[in-house]
Amino acid sequence: MPWADYTSPPTGVSAPSRTPSVAPAVELVGLTKIYPGRKGADGDPVAAVDGVHLRVPPGKVFGLLGRNGAGKSTIIRMIATLMTPTAGRISVCGHDTRDRQREVRKLLGVALGGERSVYWKLTARQNLEYFAALHGRSRRRSRARIQQVLEEMNLSDRADDHVEQYSTGMRQRLVIARALLNRPAVILLDEPTSGLDVHSAENLHEHVRELRRAGQTIILTTHDMAEADALSDRVGIIESGRLVAEGTPAELKQSIGAAQAIHARLRHPGDDVLRAFVAELSRVARITIDRDGEAVVLTLLSQYPDDLVPWIIAASSRYRTAVLRIESEPVSLKNVFLAVTGSASDDDPARR
């Protein structure tokens, strides 16, 4: 039975779809941003963010997933009131960002720009005292809160060391501590683990999970599929400024109708043989092809629960195509991303 073509986003994204009785922590309606001078080949303006509708429920972690340049950071900066939308509306806890900007900023904790958004020549405590003062709090009144966020981010034992002596992971944790200072209703994290090693990233993931368990609303951007899957209650996939899919990770995986994902690395057999081989495999699976030097990597999304690996090996033998490696795994958000956008993300080695 042939694989049915993917013709629509996994879930409706043209309008908000959450339970109307629950007021959203953040709501975007027709959000659009066009940068002056950014134009396509035809000379028409190209939107960095294009008519995005989105509702983020309170107490949840919402992941904005997409490649670099897809529009994720622009959305975060507009929510943070650091950019003005070209069109559309943003509300935070019921406050419109256009006419209630001061109230909105009091509700937000923002961690943008990574480790460079703190002062390296100051200690962590001095950094937090400075940012507390910007919130209108004296050093005496803010002392207990500063100590609390330092402990929450596991920085209390290094609080009086200069930030320039910190590791990248510690500086990232300090950025989040700064975002927590004013007890925000909503935290915005833009690529929070960018540039971190595996251990530092996992440490930061655990801090996000702790905030989530405490009932904090968090919107985070990432191009890391595994990160979005591990941390997010709901995920929105952004491609070329548009929200092309939205739902829980489980809903998005179910939406592509695949029971398993198979990755087969082949020695390139030549274009004609490859086309014939792929045509046969396409009878039972949706296939994405990536070139990697002298090899080709096929990703098959199969709608059949049975293991297709023996069938693929037998087919490769008929076409005299050498299989270098083959593995099967459960469907992941990466497979959803490929199905929705038709291309790999920035963290895919095949794109490097």
3D structure, described in words:
The protein is of the alpha/beta class and 352 residues long. The chain has two domains: 58-85 and 93-253, Rossmann fold; 257-330, Alpha-Beta Plaits, CATH 3.30.70. The protein is built from eleven helices and 14 strands. It has helices at residues 72-79, 101-107, 124-134, 139-152, 168-180, 198-213, 225-231, 249-255, 271-281, 309-318, 333-341, and strands at residues 26-39, 45-56, 61-65, 87-92, 95-96, 108-111, 186-190, 217-222, 234-239, 242-247, 260-267, 285-292, 295-302, 323-329. A six-stranded mixed β-sheet has the order 6-7-8-3-9-10, with helices on both faces. Strands 2-1-4-5 form a four-stranded antiparallel β-sheet. A four-stranded antiparallel β-sheet has the order 12-13-11-14, with helices on one face. A hairpin with a 2-residue loop joins strand 4 and strand 5 (95-96). Helix 3 (124-134) packs across helix 4 (139-152), helix 4 (139-152) packs across helix 5 (168-180) and helix 5 (168-180) packs parallel to helix 6 (198-213). The longest helix is centred in the middle third of the chain and has 16 residues, at 198-213. The radius of gyration is 23 Å and the shape is elongated. The two termini are 35 Å apart. The model is unreliable at 1-20 and 347-352 (pLDDT under 50).
Notable traits:
Alpha-Beta Plaits; elongated; four-stranded antiparallel sheet; Rossmann fold; single chain; alpha/beta
Quick recap of the structure?
The chain has two domains: 58-85 and 93-253, P-loop containing nucleotide triphosphate hydrolases (Rossmann fold, 3-Layer(aba) Sandwich), CATH 3.40.50; 257-330, 2-Layer Sandwich (Alpha-Beta Plaits), CATH 3.30.70. Helices cover 32% and strands 28% of the residues. The protein has eleven helices and 14 strands.
